[in-house]
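This protein record is not my work; I was only asked to verify it. The record follows directly below this note.
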Amino acid sequence: MSLAGDGISSGPAAAAMASGCHLLTVNGYSRIKEGTRNGRGVLSRPFIVGGYRWRIKFYRLTKVEKHVSSRVLARESREFSSDHPCWTLKAFIRRKAFEKSKHLKGDSFTIRCDITITKNGNTARHTAGAPASAAVPTLDIQHHLLSLLRSGKGSDVTFEVNGETIAAHRCVLAARSSVLAAELFGPMKEGTTSGVISVAEMEARVFRLLLDFIYSDSVPVIEEEAGEQDVIWQHLLAAADRYDLQRLRLMCEEKLAGYMNTRTVATILAVAEQHSCQGLKEACLDFLRSPQNMQQVMATGGFDLLTKTCPSVLKELITKLLG
């Protein structure tokens, strides 16, 4: 994995503790094994953790150190900087052991990278002889704002969503979304100060998740049964696009990429095309380039869905398959 860009945090409020994860799905392992030379690898799309852009790079090596134990989980601490933006995890697993393992399915596998940033690099070093300052409490404004949302104290706007009423605060919404700012304060504002704003074509739970992000600027916690979470993330992506919340939109794209399989790829691709999510769309098309994946998608009716909802995507898919 590597730190992309100039290595500078997105702002002075960079968290002293931040964490996140990313999934890199590698399709066509047999093709990569035969056609990729040592030293060249498969690079993931950039993802954000702690205000930094990261990428994962997978290398296929034919030579490894002797006595390498087969492992699928490794944890190491490294210090990243502009002078050393990239670290390598060497001798991860023997090739033969990997090819016999359960982790290689349908000629594809997934690498999960969990990143935890423990300190801001600029504050981790102290001048020699200078006394260490008292520990500053962690930032808790997100907790306070979420508590404000939950309690409804000081709320001055009410939304009606699918039969439910949800209270919120105009200034918070307007500060976070240009669309909501226009609806609440601009020429297209809806209702009066005491009126109720109706939100059409959205489930109440999705709107609540949207508000959670607006107030906390963090990934919403989705508590759904297995097999349903990808659907909620699709709805949340549509909501993020509707209210011009670009950060949430990228978060939804990353989550949906992690839920991608032969059952879900068709609907995810349709959503990506509808909302112009180019990165997610490319990930879906790359997934479908695998003949095994494509056969399973066609068997489950996913190909018919693409034909009906986004026929233009099929042309791109055919071009990739022929290429």
About this structure: The mean pLDDT is 78. The CA atoms of residues 212 and 220 lie 6 Å apart.
